Amino acid sequence: MEHEHYMRRALELAQQAEQFGEVPVGAVVVHNDQIIGEGFNEVIRLSDPSAHAESQAIRAAGRQLDNYRLVDATLYVSLEPCAMCAGLITHARIKTLVYGAHDPRTGAAGTAIEVLNHPSMNHKVEVIGGVLKHESAEILQDFFRKRRKNLGK
Q1: Which of the residues 4, 54, 114, 126 is marked catalytic?
Q2: What DSSP string runs through 89-131?
Q3: For the chain, N or C: smaller number of CB within 10 Å?
Q4: What is the pTM of this model?
């Protein structure tokens, strides 16, 4: 399945984030069956609270297309976006969001709150959740398990 192919790339990027000590989340923007932007969490490395995987990938895609509107693009991300990223997805006019693991604490695509397709929003995003959800969740669970173990030392 095409969604799994691009989600696997997002998971590879999540592993890159982990190598930098970042929460392992990766994202890929696809337009016309081509990856036009990639990113992973870099908030610590860049000292930038907005450097989430989604924003890094969307910024790269905007530069690639030389346009702040990513009409007809699909964003693949290993974890359900937060409210900040959901707002960014809406403003960038992403057509489809495909995510892996649901985020019961801060997921803004309907799990914790609904930002993406809130009735007041003028842009609607097709949302497909749970693609490779077990693999996505496992990367995050392993990361936090290791972190808790290291804190105990």
Answers
A1: 54
A2: HHHTT-SEEEEEE--TTT-TBTTS-B-TT-TT-SS--EEEE-T
A3: C
A4: 0.95
